[in-house]
């Protein structure tokens, strides 16, 4: 297994991974919309875990000069609990730290206890914040 920067040939593998990991995501989070957007901004912070030619994990990161963020962290169901998720997180953290990032944020659905516990084991903690959001384009558009 290797962790490396996303390549355009990884699209189908990442799409399949995300369809499995995030089956109910809205259209703007799906691979067809999210990947081109990421490749247009900080493409060096989009990583895949690959085993041979197969994508088995992904992680997107972003940095705005103040905070780092993690997005779309996923590991193929049959590869979970093998250390791939932890390796992806640590790889993304190292890339963010190399840019001068001192704090990383992420969002997890409140009902996803398994993922919350995964991040807690990696040193992340729930913060006393409320996450607010607003779509700047009509629903369904990227």
Instruction: Give the averaged pLDDT, no decimals.
Output: 93
Strand pairing plus helix content: what structural class? alpha+beta
CATH homologous superfamily placement: Gcn5-related N-acetyltransferase (GNAT)
Question: Helix-strand pattern, N to C?
Answer: EHHEEEHEH
The span between the termini is 32 Å
User: Which stretches are poorly predicted, pLDDT < 50 over at least 5 residues?
Assistant: none
Report on the biggest sheet.
5 strands, mixed
**SS element count, helices:** 4
Any chance you could write out the topology, listing elements then pairs?
Blueprint: E1 2-5, H1 11-21, H2 31-40, E2 46-51, E3 54-63, E4 68-75, H3 84-98, E5 104-106, H4 113-121
Parallel strand pairs: 4-5
Antiparallel strand pairs: 1-2, 2-3, 3-4
Can you characterise this structure?
- The protein has a single domain, classed as Aminopeptidase (3-Layer(aba) Sandwich).
- Helices cover 32% and strands 22% of the residues.
- It contains 4 helices and 5 strands; from the N terminus they run βααβββαβα.
- Strands 1-2-3-4-5 form a 5-stranded mixed sheet.
- The chain is globular, with a radius of gyration of 15 Å.
- The termini are far apart.
């Amino acid at each position: 297994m290797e962790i490396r920067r996303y390549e355009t040939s990884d699209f189908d593998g990442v799409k399949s991974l995300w369809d499995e990991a995030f089956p109910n995501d809205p259209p703007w989070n799906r691979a067809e919309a999210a990947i081109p957007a990421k490749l247009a901004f900080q493409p060096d912070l989009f990583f895949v875990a690959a085993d041979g030619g197969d994508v088995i994990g992904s992680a997107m990161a972003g940095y705005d000069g103040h905070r780092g963020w993690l997005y779309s962290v996923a590991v193929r169901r049959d590869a979970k609990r093998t250390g791939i998720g932890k390796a992806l997180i640590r790889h993304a953290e190292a890339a963010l730290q190399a840019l001068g990032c001192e704090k990383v944020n992420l969002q997890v659905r409140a009902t996803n206890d398994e993922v919350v516990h995964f991040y807690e084991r990696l040193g992340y903690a729930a913060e006393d914040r409320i996450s607010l959001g607003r779509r700047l384009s009509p629903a369904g558009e990227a």
